[in-house]
Design brief:
6-stranded mixed beta sheet, alpha+beta, 11 helices, Deoxyribonuclease I, Chain A, 2 domains
């Protein structure tokens, strides 16, 4: 009885209100500036007459890539259009901007800062990877009385061809620790073993963090370039081992408190691959158990969505020419960015959907004492006079 009374007294001293932060991960498909980065093969993202471009394009071994390089005319005007298209996807049909915005397939801090400023972001962390094309990942984020950055690091993925580093940024949210990893694993054109290497880098670093601070909440977001056919599978053999990570999308689907009508509205994946008429879930949000233990920071599964606004979609028809109209499939897929188009309306946006989720956390505020309430009433009375 005494314990219950003590608990009631403690609770009466505080009002608990749920607050939340939103995390979005979006592969924006080749956000490059229109300037050459020394030592990088970014020639397809330069103006047609850029110094050295013709000579560099001539060295491309692939006939297709060589032709693409010669024909590409990536100008400052197109960079601005690309940025404005990304801004529209993130802001046009949503209320506010995400507290954390992970960006995949971006070239450098200069072009990411240009994008961030258009949406009001002042804080940026990004990798400086050895990737031959100059592709990196970035994290735009807000800071306020609740969100504070603690540290950052990046981790090389040790594979045979220079790849993208994994970005690690530690924060406190309402005083509670959170680490976010931003990933862009080696593409599906590379051996499955390369993605295993990336998974091992992520898993080993996660274990190091948890060994030092078991209370740390950890999320890993980005484009993991992994499909069910991969064998060995980097999620099943590495990330899920010993229940290190769980996948938000899988947990969302399995949660029986979330209605089937909500689940059925979700796209079949985040990336559509036309040659195989195949939807792939390339973009993920993984989390550690601390985010579902009912304490402090808590994953809001019901808030999860695979997101792209209607204006950024294109209609796809499969089975045209079939004698039976029932064989024709009609669905919506991401409208990829086509810089060769003449107008902004036709250029498109990105070939990926974004993924979004919220984290909830408690805001604890002291209840006003009787003396404070009396003082507030006097102030209000004076204002009325």
């Amino acid at each position: 009885m005494k314990m219950l009374l003590s608990l009631l007294i403690a609770l009466s001293a505080f009002n608990v209100h749920a607050k939340s932060v939103q995390i979005m991960s979006y592969n924006v498909e080749n956000l490059f500036d229109a300037k050459h980065d020394e030592g990088k093969n970014d020639w397809s993202f330069l103006p047609k007459e850029a110094p050295g471009k013709k000579e560099a394009c001539a060295k491309e071994k692939s006939k297709y890539r060589r032709s693409e390089c010669y024909d590409a005319d990536w100008t400052e005007e197109k960079v601005e259009i690309k940025i404005s298209q990304i801004v529209d996807v993130i802001t046009k049909e949503r209320t506010g901007t995400p507290d954390f915005l992970a960006l995949i397939e971006v070239e450098n801090s200069e072009v990411v800062n240009r994008l961030g400023k258009k949406m009001g972001y002042e804080n940026l962390e990004m990798t400086t990877s050895p990737d031959f094309r100059g592709v990196d990942v970035a994290l735009l984020y807000k800071t306020n009385e609740d969100i504070k950055k603690i540290s950052r690091a990046e981790h090389v993925v040790p594979v045979d061809y220079p790849s993208r580093n994994i970005l690690e940024v530690e924060f406190t949210i309402g005083g509670k620790p959170l680490t976010i990893f931003v990933n862009h694993w080696p593409s599906l054109a590379n051996p499955d073993s390369w993605r295993i290497k990336a998974a091992e880098v992520l898993a080993n670093r996660t274990k190091e963090i948890l060994a030092k601070n078991p209370a740390m909440s950890i999320m890993a977001v980005g484009d993991f370039n992994t499909i069910d056919e991969n064998n060995p599978h980097p999620f099943k053999t590495v990330l899920y081992k010993d229940n290190l990570f769980s996948d938000v999308a899988e947990a969302f689907t399995a949660d029986k408190t979330i209605g089937d009508d909500v689940k059925k509205k979700m796209p079949a994946g985040t990336y559509y691959y036309p040659p195989k008429d195949q939807w792939n879930m390339l973009d993920h949000i993984f989390y550690t158990s601390a985010l579902k233990d009912g304490k402090d920071l808590e994953l809001d599964l019901a808030s999860f969505e695979i997101y792209l606004p209607q204006f950024a979609l294109k209609e796809v028809k499969k089975g045209l020419g079939s004698e039976d109209e029932k064989d024709i499939k009609v669905f919506m897929a991401p409208k990829r960015f086509e810089p060769g188009e003449k107008t902004k309306e036709k250029m498109g946006f990105s070939d990926h959907f974004a993924v979004v989720v919220k984290l909830n956390y408690p805001e604890v505020a002291p209840v006003k004492t009787e003396a404070k309430k009396s003082e507030d009433k006097k102030v209000k009375a004076k204002k009325k006079k």
